[in-house]
Specification:
Shape: elongated
Oligomer: single chain
Largest sheet: none
Helix content: 55-70%
Number of strands: 0
Distance between the termini: 13 Å
Radius of gyration: 25 Å
Length: about 150
Amino acid sequence: MTDNDRPAERHRRPVGVSSSTVAAVGKLSEALETTERARGHLYSFHQLTGGADLALGEAVDMLREAGHQQLAEKLDDALVGRNVLPGRWTFQIVEEYDEGYYAQFRQIEREIRDELVDGRTHVYEAEMKEDRRSHGRPGHEAGPDS
């Protein structure tokens, strides 16, 4: 077997680890990956909301310039710079998420991987790849040439 015809060491099941353990750690990694995606959407929410607030400020200025002082003031007072949740702008929501739930999730996921599969990553996926690929065929290598 060539170097690129075997999964990298970091993706191989440690000796003595059961298939059910590999599957459970794989499901935990899937959950973390989904949380990573959710975190990305949270950052999108943060940036989109911030951009909307800046555009809202421009709309207020434009309404004033167009002679609609009362409507501009109503919009400015009610929405420009408003908290999106009690006491919080979106950056505060992102920080709380990152420093709380997200940090705890990453820490525990890492601890479980360290304990159960010697800290290895994507063992489940690497085994799935080994089962699905056509061994020895171009484009079906286990990894890149080293």
